[in-house]
Amino acid sequence: MTRTAPGAPRVTVRVPAKVNVQLAVGGRRPDGFHDLANVFLAVGLHDEVTAAPADTLTLTCTGPDADQVPLDDTNLAARAARALATHHGLDAHVHLHIAKDIPVAGGMAGGSADAAAALLACATLWGTDTSHAELLSLCAELGSDVPFSLVGGAALGRGRGELLEPLPVGGTFHWVFAVADGGLSTPAVYKECDRLRDATGRGATTADIPDPEPSPALLDALRTGDATALAASMSNDLQPAAVSLRPSLSATLAAGTEAGALAALVSGSGPTTAFLVADAEDAERVAAALRASGTCRTARTTVGPETGATVISNG
Ligand code: ATP
Question: Which end of the chain lies in a sparser environment, N or C, as judged by fewer CB atoms within 10 Å?
Answer without folding.
Answer: C
